[in-house]
Design brief:
By secondary structure, this protein is of the alpha+beta class. 41% of the residues lie in helices and 19% in strands. It has 2 domains: 62 residues, no CATH class; 77 residues, Rossmann fold. Helix 2 packs antiparallel against helix 6. It has a 4-stranded mixed beta sheet with strand order 1-2-4-3. The chain is elongated. The N and C termini lie far apart (41 Å).
Length: 167
């Protein structure tokens, strides 16, 4: 059964023909063709996270997927809050990381983000710039105890901020 918690990679494995449907539905999903994203992000990203990345309501994504696969849609959970932005203006960004440039060279940015946040002091943050909302990375950093906030700064441009939770 396809649910909001279904991993994108598992969906693509179970329904290989659905990739083109996803890309037609949300052009940002064309990034799934990138082998690095396919073997890393798609294996951990849920459909709920993919809906956020694609800027499509989760209910709509679930409806389209159920129509394409013939499965009855499971309950589309409420989309979680994007995060509290009040702390972002009170920190100094000490490093900006370009996720798209890293991915183009075959390197996933998670290692660089982890390295950068490890050296943060109080009042400092790291900013990851990307052409997509890196929802699995945001969740990983949140679970790691960091403060996380992501905003769309322009159409198709996102800035994700990471800081120590003590702020």
């Amino acid at each position: 059964m396809i649910t909001p918690d279904t991993k994108v990679g598992a969906l693509l494995d179970a329904y290989p023909g659905i990739e083109e449907k996803l890309i037609a539905l949300v052009p940002a999903f064309a990034k799934l063709r990138n082998p690095i994203l396919r073997t890393t992000v798609a294996k951990v990203a849920t459909l709920e996270q993919a809906a956020k990345v694609g800027g499509i309501p989760l209910r709509d994504l679930m409806r389209h997927l159920s129509e394409a696969t013939g499965e009855a849609p499971a309950g589309a959970a409420e989309v979680r809050h994007a995060g509290d932005a009040t702390w972002v203006d009170s920190v100094r960004v000490v490093e900006e990381i370009d996720a798209d440039a890293m991915l183009e060279t075959g390197v996933h940015p998670i290692g660089r983000v982890r390295q950068a946040v490890a050296g943060l002091e109080d009042g400092e943050a790291v900013c990851l710039k990307s052409s997509f909302r890196p929802e699995p990375l945001l969740e990983t950093m949140r679970r790691g105890g960091l403060r996380v906030y992501c905003e769309e700064t322009a159409p198709g441009r996102h800035a994700s901020y990471f800081a120590r939770a003590s702020l």
